């Protein structure tokens, strides 16, 4: 909000004496005004008083920097009340958070400032507040601020949990730990110790290379917290509780996953290294060379790069299939070295290694069946490391395990059944069909002639049964030989008696749906819902009143991949659209086939699964989450957002048809930031991107809310920096055909802006064609449309002179009189240099039309004659 908007809204709500009192030079007057402000906060309606306006008002000069500590405390307390009472946006927090942090240095205002920071964190996100406060603290020379920020953040972590990405704060933490001031250094080391409760020893990786004495202090502080379990969060759960009943049914992650925090990726701390430039054709040739020494050297070279980098990106170029071949190299030393290399790569990639499971895992299994014990041990250790990093569920896709069991040697089956017997009971979820594919081999192996195979297969029966149930195993016994059915069924019955009871979580979700009627029954989808045309997400909603929602097996594990992939698939999408392989993005209202097509395109483009789930959720709250995620990702992943700009813009057009204002406003705010970055990077908007987005953006010029229209107008001006203004003119000309008078008015205003800025050359296809259409609007019934059309032609007149009037076509005498009067009046207000001299003779009008048999009467308006009409002055072009 601009200062003018804040003043305008404040004057409509608060008394004038209070507003002047907030900035009065007498502290007692200011205190009285702030106290009155406090009293009125409890009576305000959230829809009438936006939190951003309130925060900007209370921080208006002198604001939170008030030199009187009593007044400053009252202002800080007002910030706390606003955060606790009103919905606060990230923009609202940014208005006050640094000024709040500054008050940490004053012992008199410190307690209230700490409470205000905590309230702001709980109202939005701890990550947002913490990063801004830390960044601000280390731009200050006052060490007291830095010390108190570390102390507050240490306590906030224990109250909120690790509700932030460590990489966002570690740079400033390092500044504190290495600070010259001993108080700041001690506070930084103490905070690092608290951070180690959540991150373990990985937090110390960030300080490698520091002085040994400092490392010893950090290690000693971390050792104090060794073995401590992170306390349960007591703050930051308010927002989650509001979504609880909806999340129970519609969440895309299982409750088991929610209870267990996602494994921390050390890539969140260390800067990742991209190895793809080093993996060139020459290296690939070395890795597949006929000479075993060359192959061994290539493996060792890659091992050295991984060891030195410690944290790497998952982009390995063409290396995975070639490296996978080395896992089963005829030279056992190379095979063992490659297994050790793959184990190191999994640790260095973190959860992102999951994308290479299909390439490496079959050969890991082959190593598990090697005749040499040390190869088998290395293979098992490598598999376990990969499972710990990306989740064991990734191994159970494409029937990789079933294929290995069917074709494997007795050694492989012995090792693999033993491994499955150990891991399956601990794995939360495994696709049932994957386990069903293993059942024929399992029942055959429990009677195998090899004693070790029989033993380990029998021990694995329980784990398989936990994921398939007893029924599929018992039914499969019918396909065995009659003599084998009895012994096998006895083994199944024995395992059946050891099956654990169903976890409480499963019934808990049902009780939330059926039992907690006070919450679940009152859950409503927001007015911004896309359930009307999103089939795949509308089904779980129907389950609220009946059966529990069925979760897709693909959604059970969280997707740890980047939000968006930096790829070149955009060109292929454009080619497909041109060849009519996909639908052209053109509709009056979004239909289901467009939504499904966009979702499929995002899946193919590798968009993060969790982001897709939020984007196409039936509840508008998840759309807000998706926009927040895109906004946060923009700072670090702008290239990927540019590569997927067409998908982002198309999804935003769907949101334009939602009725929820919070989604629309947040989306427009995100788009403004996105287009600013695109402009800074000299990006040129593609024709297909514009055609899929601009018509729907222009529709929002007719929105009844001023804030929406202002944001749309600002966006259109930004887009002119990356897209042809003449083409924007064409799209805007289409907008004046709307039945919405407000949209016609705003479109005409934007046409005037473009002409004034770019000249008459912007009028496409020709100035005459454009001006004829604009002139037709002078006879519109709506006064604002008439004025906007006249203003538009007046600007054209001052650019091209008398010939403009000849381009207007046949317009009525009444309309021409209005136009002539406006031109004369506008000429007086324009700078002399820019005004073409008006002729002394009357303006040349176009020749009258040929006489018709039946004259058509002109439309009659209830208006005064042009000479008496009080016309508003020509507005300045923004």
Task: Please state the structural category.
Answer: mainly alpha
As a whole number of angstroms, the C-alpha radius of gyration is 34 Å
Number of strands: 0
Largest sheet properties: none
Helical content band:
55-70%
Q: CATH superfamily name of the largest domain?
A: Leucine-rich Repeat Variant
CATH class of the largest domain: Mainly Alpha
Low-confidence stretches: 240-267, 503-557, 832-878
- General form: globular
> Whole-Å distance between the termini?
17 Å
Mean pLDDT figure: 81
Instruction: Please indicate the count of domains.
Output: 4
User: Could you say what the CATH architecture of the largest domain is?
Assistant: Alpha Horseshoe
Number of helices, counting only DSSP H or I runs of 4 residues or more? 45
Task: Indicate the proportion of strand residues.
Answer: under 5%
GO biological process, one term: establishment or maintenance of microtubule cytoskeleton polarity
Pfam families: CLASP_N (PF12348), XMAP215_CLASP_TOG (PF21041)
Region (Disordered): 224-265, 496-566, 828-878
Domain TOG: 1-231, 268-501, 593-832
